[in-house]
Amino acid sequence: MRRARRQPRTWLGAGEAAVYFAFSQLGFLLPSGFLVSRWVAHALEAPSSARHDAAEARRLARITRAVALRWPLESRCLQRSLVLCWMLRRRGLGGRMQIGVRRTADGVSAHAWVADDGVIINDDEAHCAAFSVLEPTTARAAVAAGMEYPP
Description:
Blueprint: H1 8-29, H2 34-44, H3 54-70, H4 77-90, E1 96-104, E2 107-116, E3 119-120, H5 125-129, E4 132-133, H6 136-144
Antiparallel strand pairs: 1-2, 1-4, 2-3
Helix pairs in contact: 1-3, 1-4, 2-6, 3-4
């Protein structure tokens, strides 16, 4: 069976995601965490004037996921969600990062995902439902404190 050729805008989107992954990786490697805290604070806020295009948002989420799977370094949910937020914002689309927590046998587990108008874009709804969503101010404090996010 013959593989379908990718459209140029898919390749451009993958290149953009790769640049954002590289940029965010630098922020995660810096010891202070200052950059990541600022990026997360921005991603947690809903854009003031954004259009909603569910098909385009899902397309960007698929591209982000594909690049993350091929990324040479481990990417966690927080990084993947940041990259997707940046890509959505650059196009004037809605989408806001959400951070949730849940109790586990080992303590507390956190997870990050992107939602637009209550619809989760880059993750499984059943998986995210297991987490209690933090308010933006609490989520910013959790990231600033260095909360660990699973892959």
